[in-house]
Design brief:
This protein is of the alpha/beta class. The protein has three helices and six strands, in the order H-E-E-E-H-E-H-E-E. It has a domain of 90 residues: Nucleotidyltransferase, domain 5. The longest helix is centred in the N-terminal third of the chain and has 20 residues.
Length: 137
């Protein structure tokens, strides 16, 4: 005597739960990608029509505080400033193992050229390539 089941096993698969997961992952990556900002400091960069799309390993920002006429230096958009004497050592430790070491300079419009040239001199001493960041016109 053969025993038969009254209910048959369905081989169908519901894709609705899979689309929900994909949708949630999409939202997660969109939100996290907008939070990643390489230049967290608000700087007024000079305008230029020439833009280089090369991704630099390290960025150095110079912020000019007009009320006290002082400058602060920030590496990789970090909010805590770095003293002038520590910049060269930090750049050497970050770019030491790179095959093509380069860094970009983000400078306020009001920063004197002398401050930017001082950073370029650090690059020349260590044979680094330098990119001066600008905002598009």
């Amino acid at each position: 005597m053969a025993i038969r089941r009254k209910t048959k096993v369905s081989a169908e698969f519901s894709m609705s739960s899979m689309t929900d997961i994909v949708f949630l992952l999409l939202i997660f990556f969109l939100v996290t990608s907008t939070l990643v900002n390489p230049n967290a400091l608000k700087l007024l960069l000079p305008k230029s029509t020439n833009q280089i799309q090369d991704k630099q390993q390290v960025s150095v920002s110079i912020k000019h505080h007009l009320e006290s006429n002082t400058f602060t230096y920030h590496i990789n958009g970090n909010v805590t400033p770095v003293s002038w004497g520590e910049i060269e050592g930090m750049l050497q430790s970050m770019l030491d193992n790179e095959e093509d070491p380069s860094f970009s300079i983000y400078s306020d419009k009001s920063v004197p050229v002398e401050e930017v040239v001082n950073l370029m001199n650090i690059a020349k001493r260590n044979k680094y390539k330098v990119v001066l960041a600008t905002s598009p016109e």
